[in-house]
Amino acid sequence: MAITLGTNVPAFVTRMKLNSVTSDLTSTMERLSTGLRINKAGDDAAGLVISENMKAFISSSKQAMNNIQTAENYLNVAEDGMVSISDHFQRINDLLTNMANDTNDIDSRTAAVREIVERLDEINRLAESTNFNGRTMLDGSAINAQIIVQMGPDETELSTLDISPALTDCHVSALGALLPDNLNPDDPAFDPTNENCRAYMAMVQDAISEITTRRGLLGAFENRMESSYDSLSIRIESLESAKSIYTDTDIAEEATNLASQQIMQQINVSILSVANSMQQTALSLLGG
Questions:
Q1: How far apart are CA 142 and CA 163, in angstroms?
Q2: Is 3 domain-assigned?
Q3: Distance CA 1, CA 11 (A)
């Protein structure tokens, strides 16, 4: 190659190579410092789109899992209320069973009825007060209103579940267990005969059966949500693994690149120094 005082071609070429190696070295150091393979769109435009879509799906799936857990807590509170109400009815049924026995006189039956009245009042209070985050559950308000749980990361019906059918109006009147007039201790014609006690006993047992049926439906919904939760957990694990292929730095590979690029950078710095000194040779030819 001719020695000239014009364009220093070797220095120009070496400088371009040095800039390229330095740029690669900077990218490698960035990937190693952040742990991410894609730090800007230019690193991998297609990979960025794919990984961001996965990230959005994973994030919404995790929120859906939180929704499921909240809904399970909601149903647990509702079931706790039903259990308490059922316990009161069970006690009422025991009292009626005792009252139906002819060894009891009117006074003892009347005393038992007064306990029944108190327990019926408590059942109505539980129906009104059982709530989750201020939303009542057992007062009948859920019968004509959907309670939708968002169990998935998309807008399809397959990602939602209406749990309102599992709730019921637990007022004594709604369960068909109002105290009959013939057992009312405040009625002048009060007559707590064993026949009247047995008749009311059947009504109470029907109420217990209704509550038990609703509790079973609560359990079915809980099982369904638990299955969805497990499915989402498995799906998230798979997507996280797939996403890492696009987003996570291969430390071993980048460490190898770093060593190679550092060596190339040093070599090009040395060559550039030599190339820049070539014009000094031209001066010496001129006797400089």
A1: 9
A2: no
A3: 13
Structural contact between residues 149 and 163, judged by C-beta atoms closer than 8 angstroms: yes
Contact indicator for 178, 163 with CB cutoff of 8 Å: no
pLDDT digits (tens, 9 = 90+) for 111-146: 888 999 999 999 999 999 999 988 899 999 877 788
What's the rounded Cα separation, in Å, for the pair 57 and 236? 8
Does residue 203 lie in a domain region? yes
Q: Which amino acid is at 167?
A: L
Out of 40-44, 82-86, 200-204, 214-218, which region has the weakest mean confidence (pLDDT)? 40-44
7 pLDDT exceeds 70? no
Dihedral (C-alpha) 212, 75, 233, 58: value to the nearest 10 degrees? 150
Name beta bridge partners: 135. Answer: 132
- The CA–CA distances, whole Å, from 191 to 106, 182, 209 equal 8, 6, 27
pTM over 0.70: yes
What pLDDT band is residue 230 in, cutting at 50, 70 and 90? very high
Give yes or no: residues 129 and 255 share one domain.
no
Q: What is the DSSP letter of 150?
A: E
Residue 23 falls within a domain, yes or no? no
> Is residue 116 a part of any domain in this protein?
yes
For every residue of 56-110, DSSP letters joined together read HHHHHHHHHHHHHHHHHHHHHHHHHHHHHHHHHHHHHHHHHHHHTSTTS-HHHHH
Per the structure, the complete domain to which residue 282 belongs is given by 251-288
